[in-house]
Amino acid sequence: MDRYRITAVSYLNTKPLLYGLLNSPIGGQLNLELNIPSDCAQKLKNGQADLALVPVAIIPELQQPRIISRYCIGAVGEVRTVCIYSDCPLEEAETLYLDHHSRTSVELAQLLLKEYWHLSPALLPAQEGYIRKIGGRTAGLVIGDRTIGLDKKFKHCYDLGEAWQQHTGLPFVFAAWVSTREFDAPFLQAFNDALASGVSQIQKLKYLLPSPAPDFSLEEYFTRYISYQLDEAKEEALHRFLSYLNEKQGAAKPMPVFQR
Ligand SMILES: C=C(O[C@@H]1C=C(C(=O)O)C=C[C@H]1O)C(=O)O
């Protein structure tokens, strides 16, 4: 049988999910690749992946998107690794770089600037090395492992998970397991069981993974900040976020089907 082509985000917060998948009975059926989120999105869109952990912001760009798992990369309030950094208060920032690794958080940042902070700095597309340009009146959105330690480097740090929660009272979903093709029920069951098993073994991962910084607790990050369950409140948040994107793009794209 052909192996399924799976693409997942290359950041630390995906490791519990990958640990579960690779140690599961279906581990051998998976042809796994890791990419930055914007590339995961591109690979699913191009048909280079059968199933991918993708930024939810690209769901409206897909033909017949299916969310095939009860697990995701989410947060209930503070997430720690999706933040706007600046040396001036955000209201004084004239320009803001939008991380090129990201698809969801660049949209979330724009939503929050408009609806929550009521600010309109000039938005700049980022390129490799842009973090060095943050300073003065220039702010920057940064996601993933590159954020670790940046809170000590810059005077201000605005956590997008926390701001979204203050704005809506809801958790948030950054990335979800999405497919544009159908999988049979036994595979989906095995896939979800594998993810559940990974999340339940987080305690082990702190011994297996190198800590990215001396004062960074992987266990705290995986259990207190990242929230893996795609529960009802996160579904509501996802619906709200995708409705905002539809409105912004002036397109009434159907909501993704849940098949899990
Ligand atoms: C919480 C995070 O969410 C990430 C943010 C994404 C985005 O902005 O497009 C995509 C995937 C997630 O892994 C993170 O990686 O720090």
TrEMBL record:
Which CDD domains does the annotation name? PBP2_Sco4506 (cd13634)
Transport listed as a keyword: no
Give the EC number: 4.2.1.151
State the InterPro entries in the record. Menaquinone_biosynth, MqnA
Pathway membership, UniProt: Quinol/quinone metabolism; menaquinone biosynthesis
UniProt keyword terms in alphabetical order: Lyase, Menaquinone biosynthesis
Please provide the Gene Ontology terms (biological process) for this protein. menaquinone biosynthetic process
Please, which domain of life does this record's source organism belong to? Bacteria
Q: Name one GO molecular function term.
A: hydro-lyase activity
Is Glycoprotein there in the keyword field? no
One Pfam family it belongs to: VitK2_biosynth
**What reactions does this protein catalyze?**
chorismate = 3-[(1-carboxyvinyl)-oxy]benzoate + H2O
In the record, the note on similarity to other proteins reads: Belongs to the MqnA/MqnD family. MqnA subfamily.
Q: What does this protein do?
A: Catalyzes the dehydration of chorismate into 3-[(1-carboxyvinyl)oxy]benzoate, a step in the biosynthesis of menaquinone (MK, vitamin K2).
For this protein, the record's HAMAP family field holds: MqnA (MF_00995)
This protein is called Chorismate dehydratase
Q: Which organism is it from?
A: Phaeodactylibacter luteus
Q: What is the lineage of its organism?
A: Bacteria, Pseudomonadati, Bacteroidota, Saprospiria, Saprospirales
What gene name does this entry carry?
Answer: mqnA
